[in-house]
Amino acid sequence: MIDFLQLENKLKNNEISNCYIFCGSDEKSIKNSIKTILDKTVNKDFLDLNYAQLDGLTVDINGIINACETLPFMCEKKVVTVYRANFLRDKCDKAMEKVHKDIAQYLKNLPEECILIMYYIFENDREKESYKLKKLDKLATVVKFSKLKGAMLQKKIKAIFDKKDKKIDKTELALFCSCVENNMDIIENEVEKLCCYTYGREITSRDITEIISAKNDNDIFNLVDYLSQRKPQKALDILNELIFKGESITTILRMIERQFKILFDIKLGVEGGSTKEILARELKLHPFICEKMMIQSKKFTLQQIQKSIELSLETEKILKSSSVNSKTEMELLIINTARA
C-alpha cells in the first residue's frame, strides 16, 4: 500500500498500473488522481468510448467484467472506474461479499488494455483501510488518501494560490489552514472566494477570518462558548447542525473533549504566567487561535473546566458500554455542562 503522494510521483513518471484500489476520506484528491490517469492514457476525443463509470452499490461482477473486456477504441487503453465500491469494506451484505470474492479472482486475469479503478470513501477520519485491501495489495496498486496535515497541507494549499497567481504570506497561509475544513473541495472554493475578495491587493489575517466559512472546530468553539454563557439551547442548536452536516456523535464528543482539554492547559498556563507566544508554541496552536482560546478560558474557572472534562469522559463511557440513545446522551451532556 502506498499513499497518494507516492502515487503522484509515480504518475508524474508515467508509471501507470493495470489496476488501482483507492480508499480514504478525501474524495476530491481521489477524483483528481483518476483524472490524471485518464489524461495520461485516454485520448480526450474518444473519452466517451474508452471510459466507463460503474456504481459499486448496484454493480455485479458481470457488469465489471463486461466493461473491462470491451476493447478500447482508437486508444491503447480504456479506463473503468467503480465508485462507491463498498464491497471492499470489511463489513458488507452477502451480495456485496460475493462481488468482492469474484473481483479478487478476476483481477488475476485483468486484460492488459484495461485500467480498472475501484474506490470507496471512509465514513469518518478515524476509519482505517479494510483487511480486504491488504489481501488485494498483490493484485492491484492500493492507495490510501489520508488528509494532509501540517507542512504538507500548507504546501498543497500554497500551490493552489500559486496556480491562481495570488501571493499569500506564511503567517496568513498558516491561519488559512487552521480555519478551513480539511477537504480539498472546500479548500478550493475558499481559495477562490478569498482571491476574489482580495483582488488587486495582499491577503490579510482579517480577510481570512471574515471570508472563510467556519469549520467544525469553530462550531465546537462556539458551542463551548455558549456553555460558558449558560445558554444550553444555543449549544444544542449547534449540536443539531453538526449532526445534520453528517458528523457522528462520537466525533462531536471527541472534539468537545479536546476543546476543554486545551482550555484546561491554557488556563493553567495563563495562571502560571505563560504568554500567548509560549502557549501557542507548547500547544502547537496558531497564535490567532491561541489568543481566542485564552479569552474563552477566562469565562470558566479551572474547576468548571475539570468538571466539564469529567462529564465528557463519563458520557463517552456510557456511549461505549451501553445501547443508549447517543443523541439524548449528548443533549444531557450539554445541559449538565452548562450547569457545571
Automatic annotation (TrEMBL):
Residues 20-145 form the DNA polymerase III delta N-terminal domain. Its EC number is 2.7.7.7. Keywords: DNA replication, DNA-directed DNA polymerase, Nucleotidyltransferase, Transferase. It is an enzyme of class 2 (transferase). GO terms for molecular function: DNA-directed DNA polymerase activity. Coiled coil: none annotated. InterPro entries: DNA_pol3_clamp-load_cplx_C (IPR008921), DNA_pol3_delta-like_C (IPR048466), DNA_pol3_delta_N (IPR010372), DNA_polIII_delta (IPR005790), P-loop_NTPase (IPR027417). Gene3D superfamilies: 1.10.8.60, 1.20.272.10, P-loop containing nucleotide triphosphate hydrolases (3.40.50.300). It holds the Pfam family DNA_pol3_delta. It catalyses: DNA(n) + a 2'-deoxyribonucleoside 5'-triphosphate = DNA(n+1) + diphosphate. Residues 218-336 form the DNA polymerase III delta subunit-like C-terminal domain. Belongs to the DNA polymerase HolA subunit family. This is DNA polymerase III subunit delta. It comes from Clostridium ganghwense. The gene is holA.
